[in-house]
Prior knowledge:
The protein is α+β, with helices and mostly antiparallel strands. It has two helices and six strands, in the order βαββαβββ. The mean pLDDT is 84.
Amino acid sequence: MAVTGAPELLIVMGSSATQDQVDEVVARLDEAGCSALVTPGREATVIGAIGERELLATLPLEGFAGVEQVLPILKPYKLVSRELSPDPTVIEARGRRIGDG
């Protein structure tokens, strides 16, 4: 399924979560008609769950192996917030790196 829309929930995978556990959460979201935006980080992998908030609320996401926390997203600019990607954004422009200090 194509990732469209803004994430409604953040699923924070524990630091010891395996790729299979991340894939399982993404597969369950897909089965429910939702999609996911997976963002690996240094400390944990974060999955942005995209779909109807009411439908997402019915999924037992906290019970899946490897899931540390499930958080609703309430702020605007969800895709660029520190909630979705806690690591600093670094871009390169004209051979120079911008961001992260």
